[in-house]
Write a structure and sequence with these properties.
The protein is an alpha+beta fold. It folds into three domains: 14-95 and 257-396, no CATH class; 101-246, no CATH class; 399-466, Orthogonal Bundle (Arc Repressor Mutant, subunit A), CATH 1.10.10. Helices cover 49% and strands 6% of the residues. It has 21 helices and eight strands. A four-stranded mixed sheet has the order 3-2-5-6. Helix 7 packs antiparallel against helix 8 (194-205). The longest helix is centred in the C-terminal third of the chain and has 41 residues, at 302-342. The chain is flat.
Length: 469
C-alpha cells in the first residue's frame, strides 16, 4: 500500500554573490585581472573609469537606481568600485621568463639544410618530445603517427636520421630515448680528455654498475685508479639528466610569470602586510543605459520595458561582481594576516626552525572561515617577503613532538635531517638507523620509518647510493 506524506528538509543553497566570491577567491592576481577584463567586455552596463581631463558633458553619468520607482522594484545600487586605487601598476617581482622549449628547437631546425619532407619529419619528432627533452616513443610508432596524423610517408631509417639531427641541437642531450643516451650525447660534446674518455666508456659499457654505485667493480674491469675514477665521476655528475628542463614550456609555450598576491615588509620591528595594487577601473553605468532606464521608468511601451529588464539583470550581475571582488580582498587579507600572526617569529627572520606546525584548520578557527575557503585562499597564491617569494602552501605543515614534549613542524625535522646527511662522511654515509640516532642527539624523537619517509620526500637516496670514493 502506497502512502503519501510531506517531509520537510533543510537544504543550504549558495547565493549568486557567494558563488561569485568563491570563484574569485581561487584566482591568483593575474587571473583575477583577466577575469575583470572579461566581465567588462561581457557586461555592457559596466564602463571603465574616464580620465579627469574629459569634458563634464562627455563623462559617463553615475546612476542611482533609487530614482526609479517601478512595480518590479529595481534594487538601488550605485555601481562604483572605489575599494582599489587608481594608481598605475607597480613593477612586480616575478620569476624569470624563459624561452619556449619547442620554439627554440624549431628555430634551430630552420638553420638546417633539409628538404621540405625532411623538415616535416624532424618537426614532428620535435613535437613528440616530452617536457624534459626525451623521446619516449618507439621509432616504429612515430613512423605510423607521421603517416596517419601528418599524411607523410616515411621510414624508420629516415626517422632515425632526422632524430640524429635533432640530437645535435642545444641543449645537449635533447632527443635522447633514455638517461644513458642523454648523458652520452652530452659527454661526447665535451673536449676529449682522459677523464672524458673514461666517462664515455663507463656510460657506454658499465651504466648499470655506475647507477648502482659499484665503483670498485668498474675500476677493476677498466683498470682505473681511484683518482681516475673520481675524475670520470665528476665529469658525469656535471651533466644534465633533464635537458628540456632548462627551458620553460608551461602554459602551452607561453612564458609564465608569477606575481605575488601579498607583500610583507619588516620595518622598525613591525610586520606590515599589503596587497599589491593593480589596475581595476572604477565601474560606472554607461550613459546610454542610464538614459534608457530614465525613458523606461516613465514609459509603458513593451519594448522599452523589456530593455529595462535586461539592464536590470546586468546591473544585478555587476553588483554581485563588484561586491564579490570586495569580499575576495577582505577574505585574502584576513587569512594572510592570520597566518602572519600565527607564524610571527618565522616571518621576522625567515628561519625555518621558527616555523610552527600549522594546518588549514588552525587558520580556519582563527578567521571564522570554512576550511574549504582557507584552502582556496592558499591555492596558487604567493607572498613576497624580505627574505624571498613563497607559495602560501609552504607555511603549512604537520607537527611531531621533540624530546621535551614540544611540538615542532615537519619542515624543521626535514631541515635537521638534511643537515645530518650534508655533514656525514660520504665514504661511510649514515644508514636510516644511524640517522635516527643523530636526530635523537639533536633532540628530535622520530621513528626509523619516519626518517625513511622524510628522506624519500627530500629526494635523499639510501646510504649505499650516497657513498662516494
Amino acid at each position: 500500500m502506497l502512502k503519501q506524506g510531506l517531509e520537510l528538509k533543510q537544504k543550504q543553497q549558495l547565493s549568486p554573490l557567494q558563488i561569485q566570491t568563491i570563484k574569485l577567491i581561487e584566482l591568483p592576481i593575474q587571473e583575477l585581472e583577466q577575469r575583470i577584463r572579461k566581465e567588462l567586455e561581457e557586461n555592457p552596463v559596466l564602463d571603465e573609469d574616464v580620465p579627469k581631463e574629459k569634458e563634464e558633458d562627455e563623462a559617463p553619468r553615475e546612476v542611482s537606481l533609487s530614482e526609479y520607482k517601478e512595480d518590479d522594484s529595481i534594487p538601488s545600487y550605485r555601481l562604483r568600485a572605489d575599494n582599489y586605487s587608481k594608481d598605475e601598476r607597480p613593477q612586480y617581482s616575478t620569476f624569470s621568463v624563459k624561452e619556449s622549449f619547442t620554439q627554440s628547437l624549431m628555430e634551430q631546425l630552420g638553420y638546417r639544410n633539409l628538404t621540405e619532407h625532411q623538415y616535416s619529419v624532424a618537426a614532428f619528432i620535435i613535437g613528440s618530445l616530452d617536457d624534459d627533452g626525451y623521446l619516449r616513443r618507439s621509432i616504429d610508432t612515430l613512423v605510423d603517427d607521421i603517416s596517419f596524423r601528418a599524411n607523410i610517408e616515411t621510414s624508420e631509417e629516415e626517422v632515425l636520421a632526422m632524430l640524429k639531427v635533432v640530437q645535435e641541437f642545444e641543449p645537449a642531450g635533447v632527443g635522447a630515448r633514455d638517461l644513458r643516451e642523454c648523458l652520452l650525447l652530452q659527454i661526447r660534446h665535451c673536449k676529449k680528455t682522459p677523464a672524458v674518455e673514461h666517462a664515455i666508456r663507463i656510460l657506454d659499457h658499465y651504466f648499470h654498475d655506475f647507477t648502482s654505485k659499484h665503483y670498485q667493480k668498474i675500476m677493476t674491469r677498466m683498470g682505473l685508479t681511484e683518482e681516475e675514477m673520481k675524475a670520470a665521476i665528476a665529469k658525469i655528475l656535471k651533466l644534465n639528466p633533464s635537458p628540456g628542463g632548462q627551458i620553460d614550456d608551461s602554459y602551452s609555450d607561453q612564458a609564465q610569470q608569477i606575481v605575488p598576491d601579498f607583500l610583507l615588509e619588516y620595518t622598525d620591528g613591525e610586520l606590515i602586510l599589503t596587497m599589491p595594487r593593480f589596475s581595476i577601473p572604477e565601474l560606472r553605468v554607461n550613459r546610454k543605459y542610464a538614459d534608457l532606464l530614465m525613458e523606461a521608468a516613465s514609459s509603458s511601451e513593451r519594448e522599452k520595458k523589456e530593455a529595462a529588464a535586461f539592464v536590470k539583470k546586468k546591473l544585478e550581475s555587476a553588483k554581485w561582481f563588484v561586491e564579490a571582488i570586495k569580499q575576495r580582498h577582505n577574505t585574502l587579507y584576513s587569512t594572510m594576516q592570520t597566518i602572519i600572526d600565527y607564524q610571527r617569529e618565522y616571518f621576522i627572520d625567515g628561519d625555518e626552525t621558527h616555523l610552527k606546525p600549522m594546518v588549514l584548520k588552525d587558520i580556519a578557527e582563527r578567521t571564522g572561515f570554512d576550511i574549504s575557503t582557507i584552502s582556496r585562499v592558499v591555492n596558487s597564491k604567493y607572498i613576497e617577503t624580505h627574505f624571498g617569494i613563497y607559495s602560501l602552501k609552504y607555511f603549512f605543515s604537520e607537527g611531531l613532538e621533540n624530546q621535551d614534549g614540544e611540538e615542532v613542524s615537519t619542515r624543521e625535522l626535514k631541515k635537521a635531517l638534511q643537515e645530518c646527511v650534508d655533514n656525514e662522511d660520504k665514504h661511510k654515509p649514515l644508514t636510516d638507523d644511524e640517522l635516527v640516532a643523530k636526530m635523537t642527539e639533536r633532540g628530535y624523537k622520530v621513528a626509523r620509518r619516519t626518517v625513511a619517509k622524510y628522506r624519500d620526500q627530500l629526494g635523499i637516496p639510501k646510504a649505499r647510493l650516497r657513498r662516494e670514493l
